[in-house]
Amino acid sequence: MQAVHFGAGNIGRGFIGKLLYDAGYQTCFIDVNQDMIDRLNEEKKYRVIYAEEEGRVFEVGNVSGIHSLTEPEKVVDAIVNADIITTAVGTNILPVIAKIIARGLDKRYQQHDRPVNIIACENAIGGTTLLKQALLEETAAENHDRLLSLTGFPNAAVDRIVPNQQQENPLDVMVEPFFEWVTEEPKIIAEKPAIDGMNYVTNLEAYIERKLFTVNTGHAVTAYLGYMESKQTIKEALEDRQIYEKVMAVLQETGKLICRKYHFHENDHQEYIAKIISRFTNPFIVDEVTRVARTPIKKLGYNERFISPARQLLEQDIFPKALVYGIFAVLHYNYENDPEAVSLQAKLQADGIKKTLSEVSGLTIDSPIVTAVEKLFQETR
């Protein structure tokens, strides 16, 4: 079986690539990192190392690579013969890779009518839907029906912590043992991919929001609070009792929303939160706060990990006090090596708190959330 995976980064190799190999796929990684592509083609294997006391090591073989900019025709041909197509590139890159995927699918369906599923494994709600929309824009209108009838576009929720790292062999990657890959079963076309560790569900939104508002919100708020207190790592931040309590307050707010909205059992969700915190404090993972806190403007988006749960709580007449403090912490993030942090600070200086937060978050300037954040700034001056 042939898999085409866009994104040969740590998540692509350490998470998706390993599960594809375990399921019996030969995986072709598509990327723009020439060194990574050359190494994949030379070595045809790499190691996945678990961040744990036992330090288990797994070999991932049957891999190759194609540079999408210098060898586009090879990418097209790989798509023609693929049994599954996956991505882990970041949502902002999905419209970019849609061009070459559209070309590949067009050639594929000219040659045969074998269906294929495309699964975007991104840190976002509706990643595959976003890619599908971009593909339709890149596909001639008269071929839309063919594309939609032969291509499955299931959304997915993925979760695995992969810290910044330097391995002796750049192909090798260290990951936490825990992972979750949940896929939307109703949108699968033809046979379900038999991938051990991929869970199929009918209501994916519940699992995506549970993950986004617990793992992503919790991770990010820990990073921003830790940065404010000059902590270097996520583990170090959570060892500070005041930061820990603030993080837990945020997760209790998001947990209340998730349990009300999707009817998760409250005790089960508390166990889920405890599991997440234990993952954040894994002693074998050195996860720098500046890695987790990067791209603060993106993280303040309308449908993202802070603003979305905060506004949904407001709609239920619950004021998100802890989340508001988290947003306040994001706006303090001034790490000079993060271009978005630099841009955000410049905007705050030029336009002030209310206008800046309104513009980056999509909230109205008179939103109670915006007003409350500004008040926190006034109180702490």
TrEMBL record:
Transmembrane segments: none annotated. Residues 1-196 form the Mannitol dehydrogenase N-terminal domain. Signal peptide: none annotated. Its EC number is 1.1.1.17. It catalyses: D-mannitol 1-phosphate + NAD(+) = beta-D-fructose 6-phosphate + NADH + H(+). Keywords: NAD, Oxidoreductase. One of its GO terms (biological process) is mannitol catabolic process. It holds the Pfam family Mannitol_dh_C. Residues 203-374 form the Mannitol dehydrogenase C-terminal domain. NAD(+) binds at residues 3-14. This is Mannitol-1-phosphate 5-dehydrogenase.
